[in-house]
Every structure is written in C-alpha cells, then in structure tokens.
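pls design
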C-alpha cells in the first residue's frame, strides 16, 4: 500500500510540474527581474507564485536526495551528480561533441555520456525516487538498440556491463 501511495504521489507531482511548465509558470531561463531562480535545480518561477515556488522546492529536495543517493551508489568518476538545468544542458551535448570529434573518444570513453544520459533521465522524470539506479540504467542503455553504437559497442563499457559488481 505504501508503495502504491508513493507511486501515485510521484505521478501526481510529475503531472503538476508539467502543468506548471505548460502554463509558463516555471521557466528554464529568467524573463527579467520578476523571476526567482530555484538555487538547486536552476529553474525560475515568477515572484509571488507560491504554487510554482513550492513545486520547485520539492523538485530541489528530490534532486538533492538523488545526489546523496548517487554519492553512495554512483561511480566515483561521475561525482557529484549534476542537478542544475545549466549543468545538465552542458553535459547533454557530450555525445554530440564526441561524435563531431571535439573530444577524442578515449577522453570521453563513453562513461561521461552515460552519466549525462542518467542525469538527464532523472531530471526528465522529475527526480522520481523510483527511477532505476545508475547501474541498472546503464545496463538498460547497453541493451537498447536505440543507444548509439559508440556506446553500445564500446569495449570498456561492455566489459563493465558484464561484470557483476562493476559500476563502470
């Protein structure tokens, strides 16, 4: 019963955040001095909009909880888990720049891109506590045909994927 209630609350929260975005009460950038930035997630809400402020406070709390969980469960090379909009936007481009040859593939080695995909997935699901762990997420990505070949066929990632206790 508690799991059902937790899942329902998480789902309703996600719907609420989506409604605030679509009503333009939460923004990814400031439209001017009438907007306040939520310090953890780096999103903005209008001054006086208590509903949007409360939603961003909850989103920030969830992001910090995931960051603490990742500090224990995540790989040491990916610490700390990025939680702000700006950091996630920068990280999300790592696959593009690696593919374009800006980063040598041995520099990225797929790990940073995998961590960026994980953090983006968490952000997109509003830091849902039920989101899969990094290890489980990575295993799913390695098995998916939608994952770019540079990751799926990466020998180092494949080796880590097969090792039982590896976090990559």
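designed seq:
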């Amino acid at each position: 019963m508690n799991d059902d209630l937790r899942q329902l609350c998480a789902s309703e929260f996600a719907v609420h955040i989506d409604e605030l975005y679509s009503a333009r009460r939460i923004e990814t950038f400031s439209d001017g001095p009438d907007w306040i930035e939520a310090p953890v997630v780096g999103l903005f809400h209008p001054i006086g909009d208590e509903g949007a402020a409360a939603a961003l406070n909850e989103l920030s709390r969830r992001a910090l909880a995931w960051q603490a969980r990742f500090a224990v469960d995540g790989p040491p090379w990916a610490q700390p888990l990025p939680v702000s909009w700006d950091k996630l936007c920068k990280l999300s481009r790592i696959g593009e720049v690696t593919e374009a040859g800006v980063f040598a593939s041995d520099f990225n080695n797929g790990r940073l891109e995998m961590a960026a995909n994980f953090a983006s997935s968490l952000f997109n699901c509003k830091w849902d506590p039920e989101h899969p762990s990094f290890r489980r997420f990575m295993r799913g990505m390695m098995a998916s045909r939608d994952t770019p070949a540079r990751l799926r066929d990466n020998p180092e990632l494949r080796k880590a994927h097969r090792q039982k206790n590896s976090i990559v």
